[in-house]
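ARCHIVE CARD
Drawer: 12
Card no.: 0347
Subject: one protein chain, sequence and derived structure
Cross-reference: see card 0346
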Amino acid sequence: MTVTKEVEVVLHVKVTVDETKFTQEFMTEFRRIICPLYSLDDHLEHLAQMYARGVVNDRAFIEGYGQASGMGIKFEDAGGMATTLDRLEDDD
């Protein structure tokens, strides 16, 4: 028997950056090469999402940012939870 469930996972992440590294030139180049992020908050959210998915950490090279330490990027887990939304399918 297989069971499929939809689960919502929430991870709270604290992201620290050196805001002096996020110059207008950096922002313009990042938008041109990587994706359209327009504010420091956009970058903080983007970095947190990548961290939550396990794609980056604060000791790594991060595509579009370079070495995390060079941009002052640090991540900290700030709690979280998982909730089963409902039972989607039983296969007997």
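Annotation on reverse: The chain has a mean pLDDT of 91. The helical segments are 24-33, 40-52.
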